[in-house]
Amino acid sequence: MGAFSPAPPRRGVLCAVLALIKVPGQTSFACVQEVRRLYGERKVGHAGTLDPAAQGLLPIFLGSATRLVDYLHLQTKRYRCTVRLGQRSDTLDSEGTVVAGGDASHLDAAAVQAALRGFVGEIMQIPPMHSAVRHEGAHLYELARRGEEVERRPRPALVVSASLTAFRPGPVAEADIEVECGKGTYMRVLAADLGEALSVGGYLSWLERTHYGAFDIAGAHTLAELREMEDPRRALLPAEVAIAHLPAVFLGPPAVTQVRRGQAIFLPRAPGGLPQGETRAHAATGELIAIGEVTGFRFQPTKVLA
Q1: Catalytic residues
Q2: pLDDT tens sequence across 147-184
Q3: Above pLDDT 90, what percent of the chain?
Q4: What is the pLDDT of residue 37?
Q5: Mind giving me the DSSP string for 86-151?
Q6: Has residue 278 got a pLDDT over 50?
Q7: How far is CA 192 from the centre of its chain?
Q8: Are 17 and 171 in contact (CB under 8 A)?
Q9: What residues have CB less than 8 Å from 294, skipping those under 6 apart?
């Protein structure tokens, strides 16, 4: 997030995002509740749930910036994780009941990296029972808590890259991997499927999200750090961090007024030409006003924030 610096919004006017570090044991919902309390803002949401045992980057949206959550969902995420090979878990992670798999003593780093390459690209995954996917109106995790298991259809997922960063051999081996993936990719399923591809079984024993779109864990804060700040609003980032991949146009005061009303406007010529397609529009002050479509010189707002 090097191009963006914390810029606290005006008092009483929130349209901002927060790069939060969720620590193990916290739920994503509890993080949202605490942020509501810290900032006195009712309208708060997050992008990309992290399981209670997982840690890392959890982008939080405040005020009218909550309307941008769907745009972040379309961007890739990066994870660091550890996969235990030679054991299986009924939840595919360390929260479940772990049982023995096959002896992993024969595995080496080359074999694991070769198997990982088979999971790069567009793949199919079967959603785990302990997930928020719905089946006949109920979440799968609700059915799992009742001891029920239902048939799930494979779903497409995108793995942009997957690399082995460390390997610890043994009857139960451990593989540290880094993964960049798209929306709807289950790291638990990837870990279990990797174990099956190696014929020994596997499960996800540790997970940390390090990047999400333009968000980077290096510039994020824990709830404990926010509580210690004299003014936690100093940690807030401008809403456009969530849509940093979109080109920008800047509007004069009359055009800002029209766009706030949802009206289309014509943009003046610009050196090098205007961006085409989906674009973010800012006031001359830098305030994010809307997202819209540029066709030729015409800007049609599709989502007005201010």
Answers
A1: 51
A2: 656 666 888 999 999 999 999 999 999 999 999 999 88
A3: 79
A4: 95
A5: SEEETTSBTTS-EEE----TT--HHHHHHHHHTTSEEEEEPPPSSSS-EETTEEHHHHHHTT----
A6: yes
A7: 21
A8: no
A9: 249, 267, 274, 275, 276, 277, 279
Q: Which domains does the chain have, with CATH numbers?
A: 15-75+213-242 (3.30.2350.10), 77-212 (3.30.2350.10), 246-304 (2.30.130.10)
Cβ–Cβ < 8 Å for 290, 301: yes
Q: Which residue has the tokens 């810029």?
A: 7
Of 271, 182, 235, 230, nearest in space to 35 by CA: 235
Q: What is the mean pLDDT of the chain?
A: 90
**Count of positions (residues) in the chain:** 306
User: What is the DSSP secondary-structure string of 226-267?
Assistant: HHHSS-GGGG-EEGGGGGTTS-EEEE-HHHHHHHHTT--EEP
pLDDT reading at 265 higher than 70:
yes
- Of 26, 16, 21, 28, which Cα lies nearest the Cα of 57? 21
Host H or E run for residue 63: strand 55-63
Q: Are 277 and 41 within 8 A, CB to CB?
A: no
- What distance in Å separates the CA atoms of residue 208 and residue 78, rounded to the nearest whole number? 9
Residue appearing with tokens 């980077």 = 216
